[in-house]
Design brief:
This protein is mainly α and 213 residues long. Helix content is 73%, strand content 0%. Helix 1 packs across helix 2.
């Protein structure tokens, strides 16, 4: 798989701090209402510090997307290529996907929401490569799931439909978490594990043949 990574820098820590602060604001306020000033304020820094690493809000937004997708790919790919039956691998992949959503919600929610239309229209061709990179990462990620689903379908484990047709509702069930889930102050790690287990089980039941459930 050809991997597309965010633009490398000498020290990743400052950029990582910026994109995490920005992701929280993009999640809470949306892209349009988030400003460089607000990102800097969230960090407790000056906007000059932000501009040292990024030339525009759009660059930060795209970097949030790329880093979120790359984190998913780096974790899921070894599972997809590893041992076990298609059912076992798909269940582990789904569980890992949900775990990342739960523990990295701002970054992943921005990524799941996708490229907002007004961002694309306002940036024009200046960020064509970044947008293509994001689309490529999304396609690569979904393809890993489709390959495992296709293998399971051919073995008679999953519903007999094209893998792409099955992957869409499968991801829909998992990613809906970014719509309804809100972290609670007293939430424990056991609570998160229960959410992940129940959501993964729900998604798997929707893709398994009735006799396999």
């Amino acid at each position: 798989m050809t991997k597309t990574r965010a633009t490398p820098i000498e020290d990743d820590a400052p950029r990582r701090e910026i994109i995490r602060a920005a992701a929280e604001l993009f999640m809470d306020l949306g892209y349009r209402a988030t400003s460089i000033d607000a990102i800097a304020e969230r960090m407790g820094a000056t906007k000059g510090r932000v501009y040292h690493w990024y030339g525009s809000k759009a660059e930060i937004y795209f970097d949030v997307q790329i880093n979120a997708m790359q984190k998913l790919i780096d974790l899921i790919e070894p599972i997809a290529r590893g041992g076990g039956t298609p059912r076992e691998r798909l269940e582990r992949m789904a569980r890992a996907h949900v775990d990342i959503l739960l523990h990295d919600l701002p970054m992943q929610k921005v990524s799941v929401q996708g490229l907002e239309t007004h961002v694309i229209s306002s940036t024009g061709t200046r960020h064509t490569k970044a947008m293509r990179d994001i689309v490529r990462l999304r396609d690569d990620y979904e393809q890993m799931f489709c390959e495992v689903i296709d293998e399971g379908t051919r073995q008679g484990v999953f519903v007999d439909l094209p893998a792409r047709m099955l992957s869409k509702p499968f991801f829909g069930a998992l990613n809906w978490l970014t719509i309804w889930y809100r972290p609670r102050r007293l939430q424990t790690e056991e609570d998160l594990e229960a959410i992940a287990e129940n959501l993964t089980g729900f998604a798997m039941r929707g893709i398994l043949k009735e006799q396999e459930r």
